[in-house]
Write a structure and sequence with these properties.
Number of helices: 12
Helix content: 40-55%
CATH class of the largest domain: Alpha Beta
CATH architecture of the largest domain: 2-Layer Sandwich
Radius of gyration: 27 Å
Largest sheet: 8 strands, mixed
CATH superfamily of the largest domain: Bira Bifunctional Protein, Domain 2
Number of strands: 16
CATH topology of the largest domain: BirA Bifunctional Protein, domain 2
RNA sequence: GGAGGGAUGCCAGAGCGGACGAAUGGAACGGUCUUGAAAACCGUCGAGCCCCUCGCGGGUUCCGUGGGUUCGAAUCCCACUCCCUCCGCCA
């Protein structure tokens, strides 16, 4: 949510920012239109309220002094004022609700640093790392779903039998490989020495995966993406589409101590997506499923400078992971028009998967400025100082794992059909160096 | 699932129709004292919104949430949520 005062004081700048991402400007105009009348109404109501309060106090004193008649007269006056106040309150509440509703539908302002452009074609490749896509050998050009079947480590058919299309099942080495990657990622996040200089340790969290409606609203996943989430009707709970949801809401409604910032959290969870708009797309293999594993990094900061440092820290950690896994990847700077509604700046990481010959989005690292924190009401305060400020939030995947598994299987497939296990994962797999070739 | 009890400021905890934005204690912060520290003492010490003659003003809202009663609600009534205790069930 944008700051109403900013919209009021610099409407043109806000309009220009929203235009950069091609956003609908109608809600903004509506807010500007209603804001003036809201303030008039509020002032008038507060004024009447003040008179009621003063009169009531007087009535109390008169009763004590035994001047009942005087008191009765004032009672009548106060009652009339009270009725007027009720009318004004109803009006004010209605206008206020409408402003809030419009405000929730205005996306975040893109960072001035986000590249211009309105579609994904305008995203900028910041850098590419690792082997060139054209340099992969013939034995690496096998899609991971074929590898998975060949080695018996991915069992799509059984997953479909149990849960339907777009569900995945890992078996044996596949399940162990996945678990090793998750474990490695969580453990390395806890180690400051594995991040960039000036960074810190990320506290591991294991949050609930079912959350309340208001928790989903906090991050901006509701009401806009209602179709994307699974809803448990009986208890009115939602399955989380990403750990960003519970992590960002951890401090909802709280005032954080400035000394504790930045706060860094990491969590591994299942993520659930109905993929309502993508039915029938990427249904093979691991590219898109209703339930998948992801490790997330999420941080709270006191403002832009600290937040961007965190964002860079997340990116650096994600890159390091991909390097350790021996994958080729590239970093995209999303253009203003391709940013998610809550984000001010986003860097996507795409890993190259030679078997499907495509760049797979495995991570998305975003800075939200104070947009989410204002929605979820997360503030900070310096001890001993007056006033509070809205936090900034940052989050990024330290990998969406299914696509990373796909890229690892395809990249590390050997001529004999075995899969070379990246060195960092070997200790977690009993020291094994390969997933054995099919017999 | 059944039966009780509870929700107040950073924390603990009083208040149970008018003088309450809220006693008291602790924490924190500033100061006095001290070579320094502790102790003691003094002071400060929640947040949101609005207004203006922009002053270290004024008004207003907030005592779990939402309604209601009343001239007036932290205090009374209703609903909801959450927490605790006991019983039941249970990985």
């Amino acid at each position: 949510m944008l700051d109403l005062r900013r919209i009021r004081s610099e409407p043109d700048a806000v309009r220009a920012g929203l235009s950069r991402r091609g956003a609908d400007l109608a809600p903004l105009d509506r807010v500007l239109e209603l804001d003036g009348s809201l303030r008039t109404l509020t002032t008038e109501r507060d004024d009447i309220r003040a008179r009621v309060n003063a009169t009531s106090k007087q009535i109390g004193e008169l009763f004590k002094a035994g001047e009942r008649d005087e008191a009765e007269i004032l009672k009548g006056e106060s009652k009339a004022l009270g009725d007027r106040e009720k009318e004004l309150a109803a009006e004010t509440d209605a206008v206020d609700a409408e402003i809030r509703d419009a405000l929730l539908r205005i996306p975040n302002l893109p960072s001035p640093d986000a590249p211009d452009g309105l579609s994904e074609d305008d995203n900028v490749v910041l850098r590419t790392h690792g082997a060139d896509p054209s340099s992969f050998a013939e034995h690496q050009r096998v899609p991971h779903w074929d590898i998975g079947t060949e080695l018996g480590i991915i069992d799509g058919e059984r997953a479909v039998k149990i849960s339907g299309s777009m569900f995945t099942m890992y078996r044996g080495w596949g399940a162990r490989l996945l678990r090793a990657m998750i474990g490695h990622s969580l453990d390395s996040s806890a180690d400051p020495s594995l991040g960039p200089a000036g960074g810190g340790a990320w506290e591991e969290i294991r949050p609930p995966t079912l959350v309340k409606t208001e928790t989903m609203i906090g991050t901006g996943h509701l009401p806009k993406f209602e179709e994307e989430a699974y809803h448990v009707a009986k208890d009115d709970l939602w399955t989380i589409p990403t750990a960003e949801v519970p992590l960002t809401s951890m401090a909802a409604g709280e005032i954080l101590d400035h000394d504790d910032l930045p706060m860094r959290f990491t969590a591994y969870t299942s993520c659930f997506r109905r993929e309502a708009g993508a039915a029938g797309r990427d249904t093979r293999g691991l590219l898109r499923s209703h339930e998948f594993d992801k490790v997330e990094l999420m941080g709270y900061a006191d403002g832009e400078e600290m937040a961007i440092a965190l964002q860079e820290e997340v990116l650096a950690r994600s890159e390091r992971l991909l390097q350790e896994l021996g994958l080729s990847y590239r970093i995209l700077d999303l253009c203003a028009g391709d940013l998610g509604g809550s984000a001010a700046r986003t860097w996507d990481i795409e890993a190259y998967a030679p078997g499907v010959d495509d760049w797979l989005e495995v991570s998305s690292v975003s800075w939200f400025a104070d947009y989410q924190a204002r929605r979820a009401d997360v503030r900070w305060k310096k001890a001993g100082e007056k006033g509070t400020q809205i936090c900034h939030t940052v989050n990024g995947s330290a990998m969406g794992w299914p696509r990373t598994v796909a890229a690892v299987l395809e990249t590390h497939r050997q001529a004999d059909g075995s899969i070379a296990i990246p060195e960092v994962l070997q200790p977690r797999l009993g020291g094994a160096t390969h997933i054995p070739a099919p017999e």
